[in-house]
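Hey,

Quick one before I head out. I ran the complex with zinc ion overnight. Inputs first:
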Amino acid sequence: MCPGSRRPIRGCLIMAAALLIHSESICAATPAAAPRQVRRIRSWTAPDHTRVVLDMSSRSAYTSRVLDNPHRIVIDIPSGSLASGVSDVEVNDGVIAGIRVNRLKSGAQIVLDLPQKSTFRDFALDPNKELPHRIVIDVDRILSEKEQEEKIEQVKTVTGSGDFVVIIDPGHGGSMPGTCSKNGIREKDIALEISRMIAREIDSNKGFRAVMTRDGDYDVGLGKRVGIARDFGGACVVSVHVNSMPPSKNSSKIRGSEVWFLDLEGARDENAETVAERENMIAEMGDEAEDLGDLAKFILTDMGRYQDMERSARLAEKIGSRLRGSGHIPFRSVKQDNFVVLRGLQRPSVLVEVAYLSNPRDAELITQENVQQEMASNIAAGIVDYLTENPPIENGKVSGQTITHVVSEGETLWGIARQYGLSVADILDLNGMNENSGLKSGQELKIIMRPEARQQQSDKR
Ligand SMILES: [Zn+2]
């Protein structure tokens, strides 16, 4: 990643707590057995790919090849074996028909049957505390021309709507569960539930529209999250996570929600370092298959970042002041740190840790729908507060919904500008006019509606 982005990992102690999880959870670690043994096969369907993960008992050499007629991907693990419970898996998601396991004399073989020819990537991962040695195969979803057009159309509809687009980013997902509570509550699930609620709240505000970076249980790399924010012209990004403390004498006592924003100078206090290390570590793990070189370059040349830091701080304060009103989970504070997940977004971005899974009270509360809804409503209200007071700046100009104003007799440019909370220069610029251009009755002017102006307009009606 970016130079200097890695500090020694100390926050990973948190993962030790996850070892106590029931066997169903992917947080659970099973005792090591035979070497090169496939212990479990899992798959996650994302909109653009399907990820298959082979949980291995040890680091295992393997080969991958693609065969035609019928289309399939074959993974061979020489001298490998399959644990007794490992059997064929039906997937049928349009990308992979099914996964077959073959116990060969020469070793273990995994076959991914494909409904059509596809591209794929494979790589091995070392254990990361609760996650074992893994072999990962990402198979791309091949979109038809029509599906590609629909995808482009969807982006156009959102960006052309004139609405303020809010990017809601549920942390982790798929093979990356994030932190886990003692009784198996996973960060990725809570983050998704609350994110969906935030998105619904945002959508219920006129002139606002939410776009989620993931809307299901699958992996989304950092580069992709940044890409979604950029493609949809997000006015701001809110990443939703659940916190956890490394086990120590008093760690389970710490509870509450926190809002974090990017501080390019790095951590401000001990706890900040721990949180950032953990989130950064997990974020980086999620991107192992992606080339982050370009992303790093993109960030380093991003000259607008200091302004974004100031706007991010304001966004964090707005969300924080709403969260202070939460009745169930206490609000702790707004904090700064150097999060990888917030870098490169080039727009006001914050990370909300909604509770501490390491605190039994928080862990219990945060699974309750009314508590999740309360947190979501407060986060959404904070976002709306922020954007209403700080409309996004694009190319140095205010942005918002474009409308047409029909000039009536006696109106002046100055009067129209004041009516919409714009400057005369804004209106001239938008309409390709200069100071000498006259204004006549019936003339149509393009106007950018800022949300507070929209509110005033609807109040007048
Ligand atoms: Zn997280």
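The chain has eleven helices and 20 strands.

Talk tomorrow,
K.
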